[in-house]
Amino acid sequence: QVQxxxxxxxxxxTGGSLRLSCTASGRASNSYAKGWFRQAPGKEREFVAAxxxxxxxxxxxxxxxxxxxxxxxxxxxxxxxxxxNLNPNDSAVYYxxxxxxxPMSTPSxxxxxxxxxxxx
Length: 120
Hints:
The chain is mostly beta strands. 0% of the residues lie in helices and 52% in strands. The chain has no helices and 11 strands.
């Protein structure tokens, strides 16, 4: 079992930045690929970014490429999502995720979510 806890959400103006963190615990949590998804009201949950176990491989949704960066610190069991140049379309609940495989399709483990709201 892997437990995931997000932090770092909040309210920011258009053009602002946030950094989300996700702390993992549980057996072999550092051997999992990690990722981020988001869900806006009335919409399905969508993929945002993923990073391989080593951190050498990353992938992003087209809508966030060049603005968001995923990273991880395996010695701390944390992975991050840096969100830059935010716009109101980025407002959503952001969920961190973990899965044994990379890239991940349907993650095995989820965090509880953290709200990101971008004001216009």
